[in-house]
Specification:
The chain is an alpha/beta fold. Helix content is about 45%, strand content about 15%. The strands form two sheets. The chain has a five-stranded parallel β-sheet, with helices on both faces. Strands 6-5-7 form a three-stranded antiparallel β-sheet. β5 and β6 form a beta hairpin. It binds adenosine-5'-diphosphate and adenosine monophosphate (AMP). The site of adenosine-5'-diphosphate has 19 residues, from α1, β6 and α8.
Length: about 250
């Protein structure tokens, strides 16, 4: 038990996803949130909710989101800070889409230090460009509950309606080809410094090109080691057989 009365496994912690648009951050973070019983904060969802407001700030944000550029560090950091300070005592938080810049990573560190929290667990979903483009143009989401679908890899059994609540499935405005390319460009620019920043911490690289269920299983084995029997891939089996034969 720690001084705050938590065992090492139940200690509140922040889990964050790094990855390009379309790498599966939203899909995996909402799955993990229900699996681990942790709240999840998507800065994309948060900013889209702000952008529908008919205020000068809402209109400005709408233009930024439509262009595929990133919102300003200060706006995003302030919003995350107030949410973390409210949410964290209840057992941690999963962050989807934050931090996206070095400045945001530094800001997160200072928030966590202020809350006497450990450094975040970083889950980096790495996906090839070809797959990102395919996934993003085929992505759909439920207008009422936000559930994520894909017309190619995860279609709804109800066609254009959501399986959870019969809501209408929509395509995001920024999932048009031109905007996707600009979002991927923005990610490329900010990604390397972030990877550098987190490479010495609790960082995990994950091959996100695989089916969502396979990725989910790996995430759980990282976050709850010992509870999941990891199944080796064919090539891993081959390697360990070779190693055993050589020994
Ligand atoms: P992000 O939040 O990183 O932008 P999403 O979770 O919204 O990405 O996923 C983008 C699209 O790709 C969605 O339509 C989702 O259903 C689909 N998707 C997510 N993970 C996978 C996967 N491992 N394999 C195939 N499709 C996936
Ligand atoms: P997402 O839903 O994560 O794909 O984000 C959608 C859009 O919201 C991005 O293209 C950015 O314009 C904005 N956004 C989301 N998270 C951040 C962030 N941490 N910093 C700046 N902009 C963000």
């Amino acid at each position: 038990m720690t001084s705050r009365g938590h065992s090492a496994e139940s200690r509140p912690r922040v889990i964050l996803f790094l990855g390009a648009p379309g790498s599966g951050k939203g899909t995996q973070s909402s799955w993990l949130a229900s699996k681990l019983g942790m709240p999840c904060l998507s800065t994309g969802d948060m900013l889209r909710a702000e952008a529908v407001r008919k205020t000068p700030a809402g209109r400005k944000l709408r233009r930024i989101l439509a262009s595929g550029a990133l919102a300003g560090d200060e706006v995003v950091c302030d919003a995350v800070k107030s949410r973390l300070e409210r949410e964290l005592p209840n057992g941690g938080l999963i962050l989807d889409g934050f931090p996206r810049t070095l400045k945001q990573a530094e800001c997160l560190d200072s928030i966590l230090r202020g809350l006497r929290m450990p450094q975040p667990t970083v889950l980096h979903l790495d996906v090839s460009l070809e797959r990102l483009l395919k996934r993003l143009t085929a992505r759909r989401h439920c207008a009422s509950c936000g559930a994520i679908y894909n017309v190619l890899t995860r279609p709804s059994s109800l066609g254009t309606r959501c399986e959870n609540d019969d809501g209408t499935l929509l395509q995001r405005e920024d999932d048009s080809e031109g905007v996707i390319l600009r979002r991927l460009e923005a990610f490329d620019l900010s990604c390397a410094p972030l990877l550098d920043y987190y490479s010495h911490g609790d960082y995990h690289w994950i091959d996100g090109d695989r089916p969502a269920e396979v990725v989910s299983r790996e995430l759980l084995s990282i976050l709850k080691p010992g509870k999941i029997k990891s199944r080796k891939t064919k090539s891993e089996k081959g390697e360990s057989e070779k190693t055993q034969a050589a020994a």
